[in-house]
Protein 1
Amino acid sequence: MTSARALPQYNHSASREFFGHPRALAYLFATEMWERFSYYGMRALLVLYMLKYLFAPRAGEVFGLAGLQSALESVFGPLAPQPLASQIYGFYTGLVYLTPILGGLLADRLLGQRRTVIIGATLMAIGHFMMAFEYLFLFALGFLILGNGAFKPNISTQVGALYPPGDRRRDRAFSIFYVGINLGAFLAPLICGTLGEELGWHYGFAAAGVGMTLSLIIYLAATPNLPKDAFEKRAVLHAPLDRTAWQSIIALLLLFAPISLFWATYEQQGNTITLWADQFTDRHFLGGEIPVTWFQAFNPFMIFAFTPFIVALWRWQGQNEPSTATKLSIGCLITALAYLIMVAAAWNTGGGKASWLWLLAYFVVITIGELYVSPTSLSLVTKIAPASLLSMMMGVWLSTSFVGGFLAGYLGTFWSSMEKPYFFLMLALVSAVSGIVIAILRRPLRSVLND
């Protein structure tokens, strides 16, 4: 029987190299960079836009908002503007990572990765430009959610398909790819955030739309250099799943819950951490004041600043390099430490405003935690998921961010009612629990994860 993990083969001999990697990696890097620019540019403005403009008494009508608020209040009770904005943020950031399951299935079974990515990029570009019209706010979110679902899993699986089984460059490729993600995420708050805060919200959203359009153009230009779609090899990829394949699926599902808890705390960066920066942070620096949205550029900047050192550390550790599960556990525990820093910041202020240096320390620590979790987990999926379900399983894995985003919104509703030190302590405990659970799972999953 043909192995269920056999990947669609990329023509490595015909591919020109780009810094030791297939040239297609550079195209996928740029495509993902501009897509993330659009996503994080819009995310940087979303909560502030809702609280300072969309929910204001004199704001224009938003189609469907009253019905959505009524539905949410039937479950969570009366929602003031801040909890309502937090819930909408949580549902949005969650759903953009639930729909990748459908996008992956669509690619695996019907359209292939390339066509699905193009459809997703087009939907997202439309959604960003729709944000210019308050009346269409919820429709715009819907387009962005569906577009991301088609786009996200199929870009990641194409990175994995550039390398044959056993190629040691694969993990490094995902680290390079992750730098692209965060280069876009770094530029987004500086450009979209500044335009939105200084010139008007819709200028920021329009800039995000331009970024998504550039992403689509780059991907279309890259198409001849990309791997063939997996569904083109149906005879191989539709072989029955063997025992090893099922063990791999079960292993990924067992890790699903603790990784979701990690994302629930991580996603506070665009939610309650933004509110902390706005309401409780002394942002004065060199005679000026740091814009609130610029703090969301700290994390992605540190991603591409720290990645070479983390990769070099793992290489230096050699045989002592932590296993995949250990890296995931370490990352969650480091994230818990980041929120303990915020506990100290909240205690130190005594109800006043804290120095922005506390936030800088928080972002340094949470970035290191993220580098142990996110790129490692993406590489893991492409290593062990059955090839016939590769895009769908990538979508399933990305949906950890759906659960995490939804939980992030729910946890954010406590922001207004809890003392800030206890709020951040709650987040630290949630992240610590996720790390402990992964550590417990490490031994039974060792053989499946190839640790």
Protein 2
Amino acid sequence: MTLAATSGFLAVAIGAFAAHAVSDPVAKDWLKTGASYQFMHTMATFACATLMNIGAKRARFAPAFFLGGTVLFSGSLYAMALGAPRWFGAITPLGGLCFLTGWAILAWAARDVDRG
């Protein structure tokens, strides 16, 4: 939960940075996209805790993929926005695969609640 809360804090801070301190439209777009996906998967991580509390114990596996995906997906976009080489963009889809894996795990875990 500490990692999720920290991720949420960073998503808001990076989104504000993009809105107020960045003038390059491409960099601004990368930062906004990264922050949006980071925040979305931060909330998904918190939802995992709720699902676990109502019986979907397998939901405990999804946060690692959501938070890892944030590091890869959002982190690569942030890096490029701040001047990293464009080849960092090759990392972004790996983060997307982590996100998809997390959602698949969450769907698998939710089956336990649906049966109850």
